[in-house]
Amino acid sequence: MRIAMWSGPRNISTAMMRSFGNRFDTAAVDEPFYAAYLAHTGLDHPMREEVLASQSRDWRQVVNQLIGPVPDEKPVFYQKHMTHHMLPEFGRGWIDQVKSAFLIRAPESVLASYVDKRAEVTLRDIGFVEQFEIFEQVAERLGEAPPVVDAADILADPRRTLAALCDALAIPFRDEMLAWPPGRRREDGVWAPVWYQAVEASTGFGPPRGAVSFDALADPLKPIATVARTYYEKMRAYRL
Question: What are the alphabetically sorted keywords of the record (predicted)?
Fold first, then answer.
């Protein structure tokens, strides 16, 4: 069972990787297209050189790893993907060979969190358009909407939302998905020191976060939020 979890940045995607990675039956991989994305775009992200050295820069090789042998021969292979990493140059046909799910978060909250880490942000950086494109690709193949979970629902009721997600993925829910020991994991990307301080200190999903209002955003972020919300609402209509 290969599970591709499609999310944008500044969601609870790493906590979700912790949740699934804490299952005894699951192997996890962290943003496997990150190096290929940086190599193709030339973007100057934190720890760029370390990221480029840690993964294949060839998206085809990455795909072969994702659909090839599962690490440690585990029955479940959880793949944490950032949708903005899926550049137009990268083929998406392989997605038909995995079971996709979608982790969404209100764009206002995403943007407010993102600018704490990087001052500059574009619509492309937060991946809402690409997430919806992949959602449509999967839905068209299945003939129905694939599983969608909202970060706010997970934080409000982790057990109920994760149980519903596991049911939709046809795997058993396990209690160990609700809590994990603090610290780093071997599957964490080398970029963890920049982005993962909060999750490394965590032992489970945190309390629900207050929603960020549109009016609270800086003016340059508002047009981005307006466009992103269109795609968010389309996917949110199918949330579990």
Answer: Amino-acid biosynthesis, Aminotransferase, Branched-chain amino acid biosynthesis, Transferase
